């Protein structure tokens, strides 16, 4: 790993890549979150609370929401479930968020995306109290991250940084490339990597030579949402590969955005799918929920 700008690019470790075990690291993060949730309960006489809102029954969203609620309970966070019919209109959703903003038992509010047609997602997300925005998607939290003073940080990008740090990667000075520029992952990922001192490139549909950009990357984050979008041969030998994609193939298998088998023969580190950033995203959500609870309690005096 290059630590300063004068050092050469990383040399590949021998053999195949070190698999970055998101499940194991997420379990450690959750243990620490559980201890802090207990401390919060002992100090404030109630458990931290997380409201998870789902509109409709998109199958992928239902899996994510179920996992988030289950994990909340496992770490001692009170879970408030709000499952609304697919036909729920924007006004009703805004009304629910308003009530959750006022509810003192609720420290974190997560509205699962995507929302249905006819609902202005930005309007709904912007209505969440930034102090309860455990997704870190509110413009206030995005702005604070952009200004090097992060508060509540988007869970998947925060999970990438945490996983890298657990494996001792020195991100400062690294040439990092993010493929995908969504508000949920790509953009905040670029801000997180910049905050960590990496030299960051963001690729998107307008990128002229994606292969050349990927080949240069000492650290690659793939957040595209297309199975096998990045061929293994594009991976720089020794690179750290973080695959955010969770795609279901026709045969029902879960795969990432990177062609894993061939990439693992070239990379120095690589996240598996499943078992990489999925569990890390949930762990960082729970961590944000407990952070939000402590911050809100401190602000209330
Ligand atoms: N849909 C896909 N990923 C996410 C996420 O991290 N948060 C929310 N709220 N919705 C999502």
Shape type:
globular
DSSP summary, beta strand count: 11
Quickly give the CATH architecture of one domain.
Answer: 3-Layer(aba) Sandwich
Distance linking N and C termini: 45 Å
What hetero molecules are in the model?
A: guanine
Residue share in helices?
A: 40-55%
Helices and strands, in N-to-C order?
A: EHEHEHEHHHEHEHEEEEHEH
Give the C-level CATH assignment of one domain.
Answer: Alpha Beta
Low-confidence stretches: 1-5
Beta-strand residue fraction: 5-15%
How are strands sequenced across the largest beta sheet? Answer: 1-11-8-7-5-6
The CATH topology of one domain is given as: Rossmann fold
By CATH, the superfamily of one domain comes out as NAD(P)-binding Rossmann-like Domain
Total number of helices: 10
Largest sheet, in brief, is: 6 strands, parallel
State the gist of this model.
It is built from 10 helices and 11 strands. It is an alpha/beta fold. The structure holds guanine.
């Amino acid at each position: 790993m290059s630590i300063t700008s004068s050092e050469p690019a990383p040399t590949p470790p021998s053999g195949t890549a070190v698999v970055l075990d998101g499940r194991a690291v997420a379990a450690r993060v959750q243990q620490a979150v559980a201890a802090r949730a207990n401390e919060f309960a002992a100090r404030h006489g109630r458990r931290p609370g997380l409201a998870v809102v789902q509109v409709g029954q998109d199958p992928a969203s239902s899996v994510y929401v179920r996992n988030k609620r289950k994990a909340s309970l496992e770490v001692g966070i009170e879970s408030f479930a709000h499952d609304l019919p697919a036909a729920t209109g924007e006004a009703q959703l805004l009304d629910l968020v308003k009530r959750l903003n006022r509810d003192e038992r609720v420290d974190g509010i997560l509205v699962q995306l995507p929302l249905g047609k006819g609902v202005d997602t930005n309007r709904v997300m912007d209505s969440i109290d930034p102090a309860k925005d455990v997704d870190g998607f509110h413009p206030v939290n995005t702005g604070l991250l952009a200004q090097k003073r992060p508060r509540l940080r988007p869970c998947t990008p925060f999970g990438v940084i945490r996983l890298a740090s657990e494996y001792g990667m020195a991100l400062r000075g690294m040439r990092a490339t993010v493929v995908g520029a969504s508000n949920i992952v790509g953009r905040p990922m670029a801000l997180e990597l910049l905050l960590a001192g990496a030299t960051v490139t963001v690729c998107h549909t307008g990128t002229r030579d994606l292969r050349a950009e990927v080949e240069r990357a000492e650290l690659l984050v793939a957040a595209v949402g297309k199975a096998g979008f990045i061929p293994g041969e594009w991976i720089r030998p020794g690179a750290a590969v973080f695959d955010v994609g969770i795609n279901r193939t026709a045969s029902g298998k879960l795969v990432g955005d990177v062609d894993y088998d061939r990439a693992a023969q070239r990379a120095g580190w690589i996240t598996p799918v499943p078992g990489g950033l999925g569990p890390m995203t949930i762990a960082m959500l729970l961590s944000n929920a407990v952070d939000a609870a402590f911050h809100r309690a401190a602000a209330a005096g």
